[in-house]
Amino acid sequence: MDWFTADQHFGHANIIEYCNRPYANIDEMNADIISKWNEVVKPNDRVFVLGDFTLGENAERYGGALVGEKYFIAGSHDHRWFGDVPYWNYLPPLYTLEYKRKGQHPIVLVLCHYAMRKWDRSHHGSYHLYGHSHGRIADPLPRSMDVGVDCHGFYPVAYDTVIALLAKESE
User: Fold this and answer.
1) Looking at the domain that runs over 2-170, which CATH code has it been given?
2) In whole angstroms, what is the distance from residue 68 CA to residue 100 CA?
3) Which pTM value belongs to this model?
4) Which of 8, 54, 69, 137 is the most buried (most CB within 10 A)?
5) CB count, 10 Å around CB of 67?
6) Distance CA 121, CA 57 (A)
7) Half-sphere exposure (Cβ direction) of 8: Cα atoms closer than 13 Å
């Protein structure tokens, strides 16, 4: 199973107020986000994190507490540690996934920390997943989705859920 998420902001005290997160302090926030991730993600699942995982402190510790095979695109807060944690699979800032389907065109997901107006094959049915905005884009484009934790109850979003929501939106 593949999962998508962004904007955990582990260890970032100001994010609680900035995003009106329902936590008393960063320890409570960190523990809840880790618990929710581990509740749904299995050890052999792939998780694509689209940036702003932490401000840099304890990136290895937070990542080590999370199950699954982790793939990472850096966000605006990750450059202090990006590339230094050995168990992350680092991806370029713009990354395209293709899910093959027998007898049909593949499902294409274009991943980036930032929301885009146009993306790879956007005129040919591809989808775009992003973070960074914490659900504050008033009118997201069709076929695009903010997968940040603030938009999904602080859980990662499953591939099947992403496709179902985006396909329904596109009808």
Assistant:
1) 3.60.21.10
2) 22
3) 0.94
4) 8
5) 16
6) 37
7) 33
